[in-house]
Amino acid sequence: DAGEHDSFMHKEMQEQPAAADRVLRGRLDERFGTARLGGLNMDARETRAIRRVKILGCGSAYYVGQMGAALIEELARIPADAEAASEFRYRNPIIEPDTLYVAVSQSGETLDTLLAVQEIRRKGGRVIGLVNVVGSAIARECDGGIYLHAGPEVAVASTKALTNMFIGFSLLALQLGRVRDLSIADGKRLIAGLTRLPDQIQAILDREDELAEVARTLAGAESLFFVGRVRGFPVAREGAQKFKEISYRHAEAYQTSELKHGPLALISEAVPTVALVPSDELTDRNVGALHEIAARRGPLVVITHEDVDLGDVAALRIDVPRNERELDPILLTVPLQLLAYHAALHLGHDIDKPRNLAKSVTVE
Ligand code: BG6
Fold it and tell me: Where is the SIS domain (predicted)?
């Protein structure tokens, strides 16, 4: 049972620092500034021959796959993208021998993802799995993989498994990068960043009371936007997904840059926006968009870093710790878990078993 916690989701959120430690354990090679992923079953020559990475997953696993694709492109400079596994098979996908396919799944049993893996392997493609449950169907079907070691996850809304998926992608990107052009200095910089993550996640979890208060201001809205750009956009998608899954409020993710091309028409006092505004090369543009929202009296919650100056924008502000830019997305994601959880709690919903949803969907 969930012990001292009111729900498994709460317990599993709190377990994230320990889970993050486990996925890293034994996998960091400090001397060469790289990751040690024996389970991939690929030698350096095969790893270097990869020209493209295609990531497949469903729901939260798909959104973290988008974060993973960004990590791989940035660190390894290999074109990478993520796609919903549920759609992949139906467009007669082109399977190429020099593409690395990556299936992401907590349960390892999601049928849509499993069928995508089988379709790829039937056509001779190489698939690795980022899977939590050892010996699950997807894990068995893959050519190799990275076990996530998050421990059992019970709540439908994925938290610790998702965090470990992100870290798993970071390790994969590091290994792919270090057989290519990522320097040893950059490799070491990322290893140091990964090592800092568990404590930084803990620091966010420690601010639960503050986040609960912010969540209560959002719980009353019928409809919300979650916005972010580039690295922040998959974070917004994951945040909106969590919010709708358990609070049953309509939450839509958008690229901040696209607001002006449509959804700004919907912004009003009744429609809050949760904005991801990390300290990066896009901060000024993101802050500009906040002004557009504020001018239409849209309530704002801004997930940001301490050094970001929001000017005179009226917003509830949540500062998260900074890591290396490439790793920041996971630290921006953790407060969104707490916002969804506390909104749902405030509304009196069943946190672990949201209506109409199952933890693992073994039908098409
Ligand atoms: C969905 C769940 O149906 O399956 C999501 O509601 C989950 O929360 C998704 O992210 C994928 O599950 P898995 O086990 O493949 O990661």
Answer: 42-182, 214-354
Dihedral through CA 157, CA 161, CA 165, CA 167, nearest 10?
120
pTM here is 0.96
Q: Is 337 in the pocket of ligand 1 (CB under 6 A)?
A: no
The verdict on the CB of residue 132 being under 6 Å from ligand 1 is: no
For 55, the token pair is 């990531």
Angstrom distance (rounded) from CA 339 to CA 302? 12
Residue 95 has phi, psi (to 5 degrees) of -100, 125
| Any ligand 1 atom below 6 A from CB of 156 | yes
Q: How many CB atoms are closer than 10 A to CB 19?
A: 25
Regarding beta strands 273-277 and 300-304, do their DSSP bridges make them parallel or antiparallel, or are they unpaired? Answer: parallel
Strand order in the sheet with 250-255: 250-255, 223-228, 273-277, 300-304, 316-319
CA-107 nearest atom, ligand 1: 14
CA of 359 relative to ligand 1 center, distance in Å: 6
* 105 CB near ligand 1 (under 6 Å): yes
Q: What is the DSSP annotation of 292-331?
A: HHHHTT--EEEEE-TT---TT---EEEE-----GGGHHHH
Other Cβ atoms closer than 10 A to 333: 29
Residue 101 β-bridge partners: 54, 127
Q: ipTM for the complex?
A: 0.93
Residue-wise pLDDT for 302-353, tens only, equals 999 999 999 999 999 999 999 999 999 999 999 999 999 999 999 999 888 8
Separation of alpha carbons 113 and 94, rounded Å: 17
Q: From the CB of 145, is ligand 1 less than 6 Å away? A: no
Task: Please tell me the distance from the alpha carbon of residue 208 to that of residue 337, in angstroms, as a whole number.
Answer: 10
Q: With H, G, I as helix, E, B as strand and everything else as coil, classify residue 223.
A: strand
